[in-house]
Design brief:
Helix content: 10-25%
Number of strands: 26
Length: about 550
Amino acid sequence: MADIQIELNLPAEMRDGTLLRADVYRPGGTGPWPVLLSRLPYGKQTPMMAAMIDPLAAARRGFMVVVQDTRGRFASEGEWEPWTYEESDGYDTVRWAAALPGANGSVGMVGGSYFGNTQWMAALSKPPELKAIAPMITWSDPEDGLWTRGGAIELGITAPWTLLQGADTLMRRHRTDLDGLVSGVTGLVRDLDGLARGGYGELPAGRFPAFARHDLPELGYERSRREPEWARSCTVAGRHDEVDLPTFQLGGWYDIFTQGTLDNFTAMRRAGRSATLIMGPWTHTNWQHVVGDVNFGFAAHSEFMGLRGRVHDLQFDWFQRLLGDGDGGGEAPEPDTGKVLLFVMGVNQWREETEWPLSRAVDTDFHLRADGRLTPEPPPVAEQADQYTYDPMEPVPTTGGALLMTDEFRPGPLDQAAVEAREDVLVFTTEPLTEDTEVTGRIRAVLFAATDGPSTDWVARLCDVDENGVSRNVTDGIVRVRAATPGAAAEHVVDLWSTSIVFRAGHRIRVQVTSSNFPRWDRNLNTGEPEESATTARVARQQIFHDPARPSRIVLPIVAAG
């Protein structure tokens, strides 16, 4: 193949006259070529972009690659308002890209996280040239992992993301004022560096002071409360049947958008669309084989995929079938086609399936019992309730999990010893397992609980305890509740999202129950005040019940061996 031709900052005019700029990578020769488009707010040449799509590798495979700065970012004109224009700008950009010299008229989109969502927004706008999308590590409902989770604010991502995006905002704002620029960026960096040293704890969490100090557009929590209809600008949930395209979803068991990836896949399958799914043991930014404290084996690496090759090449193969090699005549997949490839942790193996969730998985109760036991059998008689005190000013520190936070907080499976030693964390553990036990699917905890205040949080975490007694987190969840009657027991369901893991023989299954995971989620101050104004905390006295009438339990989707 001849040398790749690169054209920088090519302008595309949007319907309101705003110019968005893109870098275009053309294979050598005259074409025509199918187009792969990516639209992101992080800078067209950021290393993050190369991790999601390698433009040079794609061009070598015969694709014209178009990478565009979204509105108000870097080389593109306009005002930066996260999410607001992605549907209309996505439509206009697809049509423009399809008509570029050398394009064959067929466009696919690729990218992850924010620029996974820009694909969904473009697909919802229905540009006729858009033939397929490959959204990676992105959400479905922003109220389930982006802005909030179970009613709690996703503070861990909201604070650093907003501040990091603020750098380009300040450079635009002070482009003719060097002193203002230096002062603004210095203050921004100070706040960003200080998050883990106490900045995360600023109140009120729902109107985060650092955002106001720098006058920054935030991730979306605050605006979605003021303008509920605006939230539709980045919501895919409930709209999948409007997307009549094949999709290729990729996610990780320790990604902040694990469940969003799975929900997008299942919704597309339910709508009768062709959908492909790959789920690795990965985090949002780490697709290698060592994640957290665990080495999952080199087969887990996205560059190897258990002898299947690079994950990028799997995507390129998929796009070439759908977009064609040059004439625009790709294949039209049958609605039920599309692979499911799951990495099963514990045995550390890739496994091909035809569905998600697995129809052979059986929801199985494991009951919270007295003396810290976790048993398949429910309590036959009343057992004394467990109690602890939750102080929002001394919250349980975030230790591993499906995170995207500042670098002090490592995502993935980590040793839980320090967490489980706390008096405000209840721990329930099975006996050593006599055989391998596979859990693959969505997990929930059903807690019969009481608090003495008007509001509180319940956090549940599933852990794998190895033969040496080391407990590592698998997945967790939170639910924010308002107590109808303080002190009265009520049933609460905590969604722990999904996983795939084999608890090996000799290991034990463990469940933690507590009321905080900070600063991943904002603290419930136990006062019932709105998050946008609450600054005063009170200590709460919590109870977890386990008796025949109030059987607190975790529900695990067990897959039988064989």
